[in-house]
Specification:
The complex is a heterodimer of chains A (about 220) and B (about 250). Chain A has about 220 residues and is mostly helical. Chain A has a single domain (about 5-215), classed as Phosphate transport system protein phou homolog 2, domain 2 (Methane Monooxygenase Hydroxylase, Chain G, domain 1, Up-down Bundle). Chain A has helices at about 5-35, 40-70, 75-110, 120-140, 145-150, 155-175, 180-215. In chain A, helix 2 (about 40-70) packs antiparallel against helix 3 (about 75-110). Chain A starts with a helix and ends in a 7-residue tail after the last helix. The mean pLDDT of chain A is about 95. A 6-stranded mixed sheet of chain B has the order 6-7-8-3-9-10, sandwiched between helices. The longest helix of chain B is centred in the middle third of the chain and has 14 residues, at about 120-130. Chain B is globular, with a radius of gyration of 18 Å. Chain B starts with 5 loop residues before the first strand and ends in a 5-residue tail after the last helix. The model of chain B has no long low-confidence stretch (mean pLDDT about 95). Classes of the chains: A mainly alpha (about 220), B alpha/beta (about 250). The interface of A and B includes residues 3 and 214 of A.
Chain lengths: ~220, ~250
C-alpha cells in the first residue's frame, strides 16, 4: 500500500502522455523525410496538419507538470521525472516543427527535377530518425546506456551535415539556374533541420541520463 | 557528507527505553553554523536523538545508552549538565513561555546564573529579542505577560529565551508544527538568519521545511540513520531507496 496514490497515478499518466506525444513525433519526423524522398505531397501535408495536435499536447503536458509541482511538491526521482518531462516536451515540439519545415520544403520542390538523386539526405534522415526512436526507447526503459549511445551518434550526423553543406555550396557556385540554386538552398535547409532533430534527440538522451542518475551531462 | 568543522559528533549512539530500542548505532557529525535537519516518520528516533545532544535523555531513568557524543573537544558526559544545556539550547514543539512577563522570560536563565545588573539584563533582552525578530512587536510591552502573545510570537520568545544565555548550538524539536503558515515562515526566516551565528539542529515532520531551510538532512527510520547528506542531494537524488520512498510519499 503506497500513500499519495492520486499524485503518483497522475505522475504516471503524465509520463505515458509524454511517451504518446513522443511516438507521434517520431512518426511525423519519419513521415516528413519519406515525403521528401518520394516528393509525396499528401504525406507532407499530413505532417503539417498534425502539428496543431502536437502543439496542443505540448501545452497540456506543460500545464499538468506545473500543476503537479505547485500542488504536490515533488521530490527526488519524482522531481527529476517532472524536470525531464518539462524539458523533453520542448525538444519533442521543436522536432515536430523541424518535421513541418522539411514537409514545407517537400511542397516547395515537388514537381521539380531534382538537381541530384537524394542519397545523403535519406542516409542522414535514417540516422536522425533512429536517434529519435532510441532516445524515446531510452526514456521508456530508463536506459542510461542507450541514452548515452544515442548522444554518441550525434557526431556522425554533424559530419554528414558539414559534408552536405560543402557539396551543396559547390553546386550553387557552379550553377546559374535560379530554380536549381533555390532547390540546393532548400536541400541545405533540410540537412540543417535533420541536424537539429538529431540535436534534440541528443538532448533527450542527456535528460534520460539525468532522470536515471541525477547527473547533468552535456553529450554529443 | 562533506561538511564544515563539526561542532558535535555522535559515534555509535544506541539508546533503549527499558527494553525498547530507540536508536541504533547513530554516527553523524553536526557541522558548525549550518542548519542540520532530521526527518523521518513518527517513532523513528529523531526526537530522541535530538535530546541526546544536550543530555535531555538523562532525565529519564529508564534510558540506557551506548556510544558517545563529542561536543567540541570532549564527550558530553564530561560537561557539567547545566553548563552543557546553556551552550546547547533547546526549543520545543509547543511554545512553552513561563507564565511571567516577556522581560522575565528572557532574563530567567541569566538571573539563575547570578546576573543582576539591570543595564546588563536590559541589553540582553533587547539583543535576544532582536535576534529572534520579535523586538519590534513587543518592545512597548516587555512587562506584560508572555501568555498574551500569539503562538508564533510565543515561539519566537522561546527562541529569544534560548539565545539569551548565549548558546553555541540550538536544538529545535518541531518548532513550527503548532504554528500557522505565516508564523512558520517567520520562524524559517529566523532560522536562516540565526545560522550566521549559531549551529542549528532541527527535527521536523515537514519535509518541505527541511528542504527550504537546512544545509544537511539526516533521514532516520526504525531507530537507524538511513542516510545523511547535503539537503540538495537528499531531495534531488537520494542514495538510498528507503529515503526515496519516504520523501516521495511511497512509504508504508
Amino acid at each position: 500500500m503506497t500513500s499519495r496514490q492520486q499524485y503518483h497515478d497522475e505522475l504516471e499518466a503524465l509520463h505515458s502522455r509524454l511517451l504518446e506525444m513522443g511516438s507521434l513525433v517520431e512518426k511525423v519526423v519519419a513521415r516528413s523525410v519519406e515525403s521528401l524522398a518520394q516528393l509525396d505531397v499528401d504525406a507532407a501535408q499530413n505532417v503539417i496538419d498534425t502539428d496543431d495536435t502536437l502543439d496542443a499536447m505540448e501545452m497540456e503536458i506543460e500545464q499538468r507538470c506545473i500543476r503537479l509541482i505547485a500542488l504536490q511538491q515533488p521530490m527526488a526521482a519524482d522531481l527529476r521525472l517532472l524536470a525531464t518531462i518539462l524539458k523533453v516536451v520542448t525538444d519533442l515540439e521543436r522536432m515536430a516543427d523541424n518535421a513541418v519545415n522539411i514537409s514545407e520544403i517537400t511542397l516547395r520542390i515537388a514537381g521539380q527535377q531534382l538537381v541530384k538523386p537524394l542519397v545523403d539526405i535519406p542516409k542522414m534522415a535514417a540516422l536522425a530518425v533512429q536517434m529519435v526512436h532510441d532516445a524515446l526507447a531510452a526514456l521508456v526503459q530508463r536506459d542510461e546506456a542507450l541514452a548515452r549511445a544515442v548522444c554518441e551518434r550525434d557526431d556522425a550526423v554533424d559530419d554528414m551535415y558539414a559534408a552536405l553543406f560543402e557539396e551543396l555550396v559547390d553546386m550553387m557556385k557552379s550553377d546559374t539556374d535560379p530554380i536549381r540554386v533555390s532547390q540546393c538552398a532548400n536541400l541545405m535547409f533540410t540537412a540543417r533541420f535533420l541536424e537539429r532533430i538529431a540535436d534534440h534527440a541528443t538532448n533527450i538522451g542527456e535528460r534520460v541520463v539525468y532522470l536515471v542518475s541525477g547527473e547533468r551531462v552535456k553529450l554529443g | 557528507m562533506e561538511s564544515k568543522q563539526p561542532v558535535m559528533s555522535s559515534r555509535h549512539i544506541s539508546l533503549w527505553y527499558d527494553k525498547t530500542r530507540a536508536l541504533t548505532d547513530i554516527t553523524m557529525d553536526i557541522p558548525e553554523k549550518q542548519v542540520t535537519a532530521i526527518i523521518g516518520p513518527s517513532g523513528c528516533g529523531k526526537s530522541t536523538f535530538l535530546k541526546t545532544l544536550n543530555r535531555m535523555t538523562d532525565l529519564n531513568p529508564a534510558v540506557k545508552m551506548g556510544g558517545f557524543i563529542n561536543f567540541l573537544d570532549k564527550p558530553l558526559q564530561q560537561y557539567d549538565v547545566v553548563e552543557l544545556r546553556r551552550r546547547v539550547g533547546m526549543v520545543f514543539q509547543k511554545p512553552n513561555p513561563f507564565p511571567k512577563s516577556i522581560y522575565d522570560n528572557i532574563t530567567f536563565g541569566l538571573r539563575l546564573q547570578g546576573v543582576k545588573k539591570k543595564s546588563d539584563l536590559d541589553a540582553v533582552v533587547e539583543s535576544s529579542l532582536r535576534r529572534a525578530a520579535l523586538w519590534d512587536e513587543v518592545k512597548d510591552r516587555l512587562k506584560q505577560s508572555a501568555m498574551g502573545l500569539s503562538g508564533g510570537q510565543q515561539q519566537r520568545l522561546c527562541i529569544a529565551r534560548a539565545l539569551a544565555v548565549n548558546p553555541e548550538v540550538v536544538l529545535m524539536d518541531e518548532p513550527c508544527s503548532a504554528l500557522d503558515p505565516v508564523a512558520t515562515a517567520k520562524i524559517e526566516d529566523l532560522i536562516l538568519q540565526l545560522k550566521q551565528e549559531y549551529t542549528i539542529v532541527i527535527v521536523t515532520h515537514n519535509m518541505q521545511q527541511a528542504a527550504r531551510i537546512s544545509d544537511g538532512t539526516a533521514f532516520f527510520l526504525s531507530s537507524q540513520l538511513v542516510e545523511y547528506d547535503t539537503t540538495v542531494k537528499m531531495f534531488e537524488n537520494p542514495g538510498d531507496q528507503r529515503t526515496e520512498d519516504y520523501i516521495t510519499g511511497r512509504f508504508g
